[in-house]
Design a protein that fits this description.
The complex is a heterotrimer of chains A (about 240), B (about 210) and C (about 220).
Chain A: H1 2-20, H2 46-73, H3 76-108, H4 116-136, H5 141-169, H6 185-188, H7 193-228, H8 236-239
Chain B: E1 5-15, E2 18-28, E3 32-37, H1 44-51, E4 59-66, E5 69-70, E6 80-83, H2 95-106, H3 112-121, H4 137-149, E7 155-159, H5 167-180, E8 185-190, H6 193-196, E9 201-204
Parallel strand pairs in B: 3-8, 3-9, 6-7, 7-8
Antiparallel strand pairs in B: 1-2, 1-4, 4-5
Chain C: H1 3-19, H2 21-41, H3 48-66, H4 69-77, H5 80-86, H6 89-118, H7 127-153, H8 158-186, H9 190-219
Helix pairs in contact in C: 1-6, 2-3, 2-6, 3-6, 3-8, 4-7, 6-7, 7-8, 7-9, 8-9
The chains are: A mainly alpha (about 240), B alpha/beta (about 210), C mainly alpha (about 220).
Chain lengths: ~240, ~210, ~220
C-alpha cells in the first residue's frame, strides 16, 4: 500500500512539474528550465513522450522473453506474462505515438510525416494489433500460446531493422536521425540539472507504474483462467461474502 | 528389425491446465502386440500420438531405441506406421501415386513387389490406379494399412483400427495384428474388447489420472 | 538433402496441375490488381517514385492472395497428419518454401512484365541493380510469407489474418526494396545502394534462420 502512495505522489509531482514549470532563458530558480534550441517551449513533452516510448520497448522485450520461455517450458503462466506485457505495450505504444504526433505538430508543422522513427513506432503498433488478432482467432489455449509466442519472436527479429538501421539511412526529422546536427537533448544532456531530475523521475515513475500494472495484469489472467477451470475455488472473502 | 524397444518414463500430458493422464511407465522390449484401452475421451489417441512422436508430452519422456541407440525425434517418422480414422490421404491422387510420393518424401525406395502384395492382401490391387476420391470409407481404411506398412516400420500403431470396417474387414485386421506382431511392435488403441484380445499387455488409461 | 523437400514440392506441383486452383485465381488477381490501379490513375501520369512503390504493392497483395495455400490446403483437407508421419519438420518447411519461392518468382516476373508494358514511367536504368533487388526481395518475401502461412494455417479467420500478420514482418523488406527499385529507375550506381542491399541480404538470412528454428514449434502440436 505504501508503495502505491509513493508511486502516486511521484507521478503527480512529475506531471505537475513537467507541465507547470516555466522555461526561461537563464534559469535561476531550481524550478526553471533552460531554452533548448530546436525545441523551445515544446520541450516539456519530453517528460512524457520519451518514457512512454521507452516503456513500449521494455514491454516488447518482456513479451518476447516470456514468449521464449513459454516455448521452452510450455508453462501457461509464461503466456499470461507475455500477454500482459503485450497489452501494456500496446497502451504505451499508442501513448507514445500520440505524444509524438502532438510534438510533431508543434515542432515540424504536421502531425505525421513518415519519418523513420514514426514509421517504426507505427510498425510496432501493427505488430501488437496483429498479435491480438491472432490470439482472438484461436480457441485452444495451448495453440494460442504457442502461435503467439512464435509470432512475437518473428516480430522481434524484424524490430532491429526498424529501430537501428532505418533511421540511420533514411533522412528524418526526429532528433538523432541521419541529418540532424543536434544529437538530441537526451543524448547531449543539454538539459540542466533540474530538467534532468524531472526527466529521470518521470522515467522511474512510469517504469514502476508499468511493472505494477504488468504484475496485476498477469496475475488476474492466471486467476481468471484457473477459476474458469475450477482448479481453484474462490474463498468467501473473494466472493464478497 | 530386431532390438527395437519403446520406453515410457513418467509420461504425463495436460492440455492447457487440464490433465489427461500422468505418470505412465512401460517398457516394450520385444515384438508383440500391446493394447491401450479406455473409454472415449480418456486420452488413447493422445497417448498413441505421443508414442508416434506427433505430440510432445507435458512431462516425462518417450524413448525409442534400436540397435544404433536412441532415435532422435527428427528421424522417428520412418520407424513408425500409423493407422487411424482421422488420417486422410491425398484424394486427388490414385492409391499407387500416393504410395510412390510418400516413399519419395520419406527418402526410401518403394519396393514395388512388396507393396503390390500388400495391396493384394487388402483387396485393393485392382483399384490401385483409381483416385482415392472414388474409394469407399472401408477401402480408404484398408489403404491406410498399406500406407502404414509400405516402409517396413519397426512399430505399427493402430488407433481404432476396426472403425468403418465390416465383419470381414475386421477379421482381416485381426489377422494383420497377429501376423505383424511376430515381426514388429504393434500398438492397438481401442475401446472394443475384441480388438484388445490379441494383445499380450494392456495399458488401462483410466488408472493414470 | 534436397531430394526429400523436392519430392514434397513435386507433390504440391502435381496436385496443383490436377486442380489448377492457384494458377487460375492468382493470374486473375494480378490482372485485377493492376487494372484497379490503372483505372484509379485514369489519364494522370504518375511519378517514378509512385510507380516504383505501387509495383511492390501489387507484389505484396498478390503474395497474400497465393502463398498461404501451401499450408492452408493441407490443414483444410486434413492431410497435415499425413505429412507429419512421412517427413521431419525441416523437410516440410523446405518443401513448402521451394514451392512458394517458385510461385513468387513466376508471379512477380508476370507482374514486372505487365508493369513495364503498362506504366510509362517504369523504365529501369540500372537493370542489374533491379535484377538483384528482384531476386533478393523475392527470396525474403517467400521466406517470410511461408512461415506466416504456417502460423495462420493453424488459426481461424485465415484469409483476413494473413495480410494482417505478414505486413509488419515484411515492412522492412518492402521499404528497402521500394528504395532500391527507385534507385534502379533513377540509374543510381551500386556503390550508393550498398547499404540497402546489405539490409535485404541481412533480412533474408535472418528470416531464413528464424523460420527454420521456429517452424518445429508451429508444426508439432
Amino acid at each position: 500500500m505504501i508503495w502505491k502512495i509513493f508511486l502516486f505522489v511521484l507521478l503527480a509531482f512529475v506531471s505537475i512539474a513537467g507541465i507547470a514549470f516555466p522555461i526561461v532563458e537563464k534559469p535561476s530558480a531550481w524550478y526553471e528550465f533552460p531554452f533548448i534550441p530546436g525545441l523551445e517551449e515544446n520541450a516539456k513533452i519530453i517528460f512524457f513522450h520519451v518514457p512512454t516510448a521507452w516503456l513500449t520497448v521494455i514491454a516488447f522485450l518482456m513479451s518476447t522473453i516470456f514468449s521464449f520461455n513459454y516455448l521452452r517450458k510450455k508453462n501457461l503462466d509464461d503466456d499470461a506474462k507475455a500477454y500482459s506485457a503485450a497489452q501494456l505495450g500496446m497502451v504505451f505504444c499508442i501513448l507514445a505515438t500520440v505524444t509524438g504526433a502532438v510534438w510533431s505538430k508543434f515542432a515540424w508543422g504536421s502531425f505525421w510525416s513518415w519519418d523513420p522513427r514514426q514509421t517504426s513506432i507505427f510498425a510496432i503498433l501493427l505488430i501488437y494489433g496483429a498479435l491480438f488478432a491472432l490470439r482472438s482467432s484461436i480457441e485452444s489455449e495451448d495453440k494460442r500460446a504457442t502461435l503467439s509466442a512464435v509470432y512475437s519472436l518473428i516480430a522481434f527479429v524484424t524490430v532491429p531493422f526498424f529501430i537501428f538501421i532505418m533511421p540511420r539511412i533514411m533522412k528524418g526529422l526526429h532528433p538523432g536521425s541521419a541529418d540532424d546536427t543536434n544529437a538530441g537533448p537526451v543524448v547531449d544532456f543539454k538539459m540542466n540539472s533540474s530538467m534532468q531530475l524531472i526527466f529521470f523521475l518521470s522515467l522511474t515513475g512510469f517504469t514502476i507504474l508499468y511493472f505494477w500494472m504488468w504484475r496485476v495484469g498477469y496475475k488476474s489472467i492466471i486467476y481468471k483462467d484457473k477459476l474458469e477451470k475450477q482448479l481453484i475455488t474462490p474463498t468467501k472473502s473473494e466472493l464478497g461474502g | 528389425m530386431s532390438n527395437y524397444s519403446i520406453h515410457s518414463q513418467h509420461l504425463s500430458k495436460s492440455f492447457g491446465r487440464r490433465l489427461i493422464f500422468k505418470d505412465i511407465n512401460f517398457n516394450w522390449n520385444e515384438k508383440g502386440s500391446f493394447g491401450i484401452s479406455g473409454p472415449n475421451g480418456s486420452g488413447k489417441s493422445t497417448l498413441v500420438k505421443i508414442i508416434a512422436g506427433l505430440i510432445a508430452p507435458s512431462f516425462g519422456k518417450i524413448i525409442h531405441k534400436n540397435s544404433g541407440g536412441e532415435i532422435i525425434p527428427e528421424k522417428l517418422h520412418n520407424h513408425i506406421g500409423f493407422v487411424s480414422p482421422y488420417l486422410i490421404l491425398y484424394e486427388e491422387f490414385s492409391a499407387w501415386e500416393n504410395l510412390k510420393i510418400f516413399a519419395q518424401i520419406r527418402g526410401v525406395t518403394l519396393e514395388e513387389e512388396r507393396v503390390l502384395t500388400y495391396l493384394q492382401q487388402f483387396l485393393l490391387k485392382d483399384r490401385k490406379d483409381d483416385l482415392v476420391k472414388t474409394y469407399s470409407s472401408g477401402m480408404k481404411q484398408r489403404l491406410k494399412f498399406v500406407f502404414a506398412l509400405q516402409h517396413s516400420p519397426e512399430v505399427l500403431i493402430l488407433d481404432e483400427p476396426t472403425s468403418n470396417l465390416d465383419e470381414d474387414g475386421k477379421k482381416n485386421v485381426y489377422k494383420i495384428i497377429n501376423d505383424e506382431s511376430k515381426n514388429r511392435i504393434v500398438v492397438v488403441a481401442s475401446n472394443e474388447s475384441r480388438d484388445l484380445e490379441l494383445c499380450s499387455e494392456i495399458l488401462m488409461l483410466e488408472k493414470f489420472k | 538433402m534436397i531430394a526429400k523437400p523436392f519430392a514434397l514440392f513435386k507433390k504440391d506441383y502435381h496436385s496443383e496441375l490436377r486442380t489448377r486452383y492457384a494458377i487460375n485465381s492468382l493470374a486473375m488477381f494480378i490482372i485485377v490488381a493492376i487494372s484497379v490501379i490503372l483505372f484509379s490513375i485514369g489519364n494522370e501520369t504518375i511519378t517514378e517514385s509512385l510507380t516504383g512503390g505501387l509495383f511492390w504493392v501489387v507484389i505484396f497483395f498478390t503474395a497474400m492472395s497465393g502463398l498461404a495455400r501451401a499450408f492452408v490446403s493441407e490443414e483444410e483437407r486434413g492431410t497435415t497428419l499425413t505429412l507429419q508421419l512421412i517427413a521431419s519438420p525441416s523437410t516440410v518447411f523446405s518443401g513448402k518454401l521451394i514451392f512458394n519461392l517458385i510461385l513468387v518468382f513466376c508471379m512477380n516476373v508476370v507482374i514486372a512484365l505487365l508493369y513495364s508494358a503498362l506504366f510509362e514511367k517504369f523504365i529501369i536504368q540500372n537493370f542489374l541493380l533491379f535484377i538483384i533487388t528482384f531476386i533478393l526481395g523475392n527470396i525474403g518475401l517467400a521466406v517470410a510469407s511461408t512461415i506466416i502461412a504456417a502460423i495462420i494455417a493453424k488459426a481461424g479467420a485465415k484469409g483476413t489474418l494473413y495480410p494482417v500478420l505478414s505486413f509488419p514482418i515484411l515492412l522492412p523488406l518492402i521499404l528497402t526494396c521500394v528504395q532500391l527499385t527507385l534507385f534502379s529507375i533513377d540509374g543510381t550506381g551500386f556503390a550508393d545502394a550498398q547499404f540497402e542491399l546489405a539490409i535485404v541480404v541481412g533480412y533474408d538470412v535472418i528470416m531464413l534462420t528464424a523460420s527454420y528454428m521456429l517452424f518445429d514449434f508451429i508444426w508439432k502440436d
